[in-house]
Sequence to fold (118 residues):
Amino acid sequence: KKDQHLKMICMARKGIPKYHAKYMPVATSKYQFQPVINLDREMADSLTLDEKIDLVQSCPRKVFELDVEDKVQVERLMDCIFCDECVAKAQVLGKRSMVTVKMDANTFHFTVEAVTKD
Fold:
């Protein structure tokens, strides 16, 4: 909840499975903040087709796509790695505030992947 705080003291001990089974890796975990990508529709629609293609191709993770009407759409939101290449391309195209990329500090995706066969 809002305005809550947690204080703790943590201790980490390095160990190997030879000494205890609790040190055997059984899963890996990761978390990723929810991206918030704002695309100014009016500015994006004013681009030429070549500029739209340049903007879509500027993203290394292919977050953007052109739809059937040649409009730029955010298709794969969770593939965003916050590299800001699309923001830089928008600035090069003279549309400084066309694309903004932020992370939602209140939402993240936590993934646990098992590494055992069971």
